[in-house]
Amino acid sequence: MNRSELEHILRACREITGETDFVVVGSQSILGRHPDAPRALRKSMELDVFPKYRPDLADEIEGSLGALSLFDQTFGYHADGVGPETAVLPCGWEDRLVPVRSEKTRGATGWCLDPYDLAYSKLAAGRPKDLGYVAGLLRFRLIGPVRLERHLQLATDTGLRALLLQRLTICLRKRNEEGP
Question: Which residues of 93-125 are buried (b: 16+ CB within 10 A; e: fewer)?
Fold first, then answer.
């Protein structure tokens, strides 16, 4: 997915729901802060999104713009209508959202996760693909390991914090194994 495709989905989400503000979680939220992120970080052809003030309308997005929809079949990418509970995020994440708004979004704003909050959520999910994604964020220097380690301290649950730090160690090893 690229920034133009993200903007297209935001525009379509506005048309479907009548809402203007959408939260973008998941890997493609990197396009908020880094519109030209490396291709390796933009492999996914789905955008995880929900209406910021009406998350209950996510089903409408899923039904109209989701996988195998006419939208997906036409454009080759789609929106997954998700909820706020989809991503485990640290305290204060809402204050760090990165707005995506342009002529192409026609009045819609996509509020993308800050890259450090994105990494936090990927480490919390902990699937191999998520850890690989964080390793990629580190490898391409879109986030720094020292700041990420400090960011993980935002976890209020000490068990979760320990798990996140353990997973960060795995990502640092993967980053070093795969090279620049």
Answer: beebbbebbbeebeebbbbbbbbbbbbbbbbbb
Q: Encode 110-142 in three state secondary structure.
A: EEECCHHHHHHHHHHHCCHHHHHHHHHHHHCCC
Q: Which residues contact 173 (CB under 8 A, 6 or more apart)?
A: none
Give, rounded to a whole angstrom, the gap between the first and last alpha carbons of the chain. Answer: 22
> What pLDDT does 180 receive?
46
Task: For residue range 113-152, list pLDDT tens digits in order.
Answer: 999 999 999 999 999 999 999 999 999 999 999 999 999 9
Query: Coil, strand, or helix at residue 36?
Result: coil
With a cut of 60, say whether residue 179 has pLDDT above it. no
pTM over the 0.90 mark: yes
Alpha carbons 72 and 111: distance in angstroms, whole number: 22
